[in-house]
Design a protein that fits this description.
144 residues, alpha+beta, Heat Shock Protein 90, 5-stranded antiparallel sheet, 4 helices, 33% helix, globular, EC 2.7.11.1, ATP-binding, serine/threonine-protein kinase
């Protein structure tokens, strides 16, 4: 019997209208696992925050590429969102609730906090000058 696996990659420009595209794509991909509405909403929120971070912080409003890789193994959904922007010099500091590198842009500093709240696991890799990848995992169907 073949294990339940699938994956896809979406590459798109770092413009705000594509945040919605990323959300809908992730939600659509996730439906293959028969998620609850709450699980889909959680995923969409986490993807939205990660993509918005790429646009606002990674590229600082400049247009470049964002890559979203979605995959699942069994009922475990993995989301990897990558930018090739300025990177994060202090990941630990960046992940603190209420911290923002752009307070003048009315940013709340809650992006990583929301990702952590809505996903089961989150890990951030970044190199200054080379970009950032946010790795997230969510087990689908656990509450049933």
């Amino acid at each position: 019997m073949k294990e339940n696996t699938n994956e896809m990659i979406l590459v798109f420009d770092s413009i705000s209208v594509n945040e919605g595209l990323a959300r809908v794509t992730a939600a659509s991909f996730c439906t293959q696992l028969n998620p609850t509405l709450e699980e889909v909403a959680d995923l969409k929120t986490a993807v939205s925050e990660a993509v918005t971070n790429c646009i606002i912080h990674g590229y600082e409003g400049k247009i470049n590429k964002i890559e979203m890789k979605l995959q699942y193994h069994g009922n475990e959904l993995y989301v990897h969102i990558t930018d090739y922007g300025i990177g994060i010099t202090d990941i630990e500091k960046a992940m603190e609730p209420m911290y923002t590198s752009k307070p003048d842009h009315e940013r709340s500093g809650m992006g990583f906090t929301f990702m952590e709240a809505f996903m089961d696991e989150i890990r951030v890799e970044s190199q200054p000058g080379k970009g950032t990848t946010v790795h997230m995992k969510k087990t689908i169907g656990r509450k049933r």
